[in-house]
Description:
The protein is 37% helix and 21% strand. By secondary structure, the protein is α/β, with parallel strands linked by helices.
Amino acid sequence: xxxxxxLLACLLLLVSPLALALAEVTEAEQDDYYYWMEDLVYxxxxxxxAIEGSELALQYLIAEYQTLGCSYEDGTLQLCPVExxxxxxxxxxxxxxxxxxxxxxxxxxxxxxxxHYDTIAGPGARDNASGVAGVLLFLQRFSRMEPYENTExxxxxxxxxxxxxxxxxxxVASLPQEERDRIIAVFNMDMIVVDDWQEDEFCLSCDTMGGxxxxxxxxxxxxxxxxxxxxxxSRAFLQAIADLDAFDPSDEGDRYAVxxxxxxDHDSFHYAGIDxxxxxxxxxxxxxxxxCTLMHSENDLIGDFDWDATWTALDILYTAxxxxxxxxxxxxxxE
Length: 335
């Protein structure tokens, strides 16, 4: 009996990395997520590209990526320099931070998780320490798992989103066409927390900039009721909701929605013909797409969030990416 128990214990240790393939965010991951948010919001604060906080955030993220296993030496940690001018005339001298989890095989498909780390006028808990903490969580989780056979994962923290998406534009511009062609989905995270006092007005929104149809890639328009929204990333998002039984189908338009909407870093990929979505909590359809009133303010601090809603969003994103990484046709039946 003792030998059997010992053998079982050994087997559990051997498969422990694979146990992380379960979708549910663990308590340890929840703690790490909160600590990353605390570091960005209270340890650094305002991360506007024109002030010192931007450089502090950049160095912090480089250190975290290294702690999570990325390295300049093997090319799994990279920086993409971003130079430009803000709306207000300040010069930008910053960088995107890219972490890479390579596939087992050569010339694989690519899936990207991304979020912006800069802010406008405050500590940016909602907008967008919440998204950056999500990128770090996924980097941590996937780094503990066996690599996918034919899918490379990239984890990107963009600078200068708030000043015109210069960070994501610079990154996309740096990619050779061969790499662009291998990107099958981009999951951008921008405000993935929701306040308890607004949860009845908000929903989990999967925003696209258009859909891929039999005729090609179609630009959408959020003001058009019949604007196309379905692409590889949004279909995987819907498939993950179904697989996890995360929402009742009757909740569509109330607790979750897929719709055309721009104005985040997924735009930069869309204009390059790459399937991309932005995941956020914002006003339900029909509410003029309202955002949290605390965003872009000095009061964007960690508040009384519905953390279960955040964990659900992360569960869905993980399941969507995992499904696509194993089978690029994942979600192809969803519209």
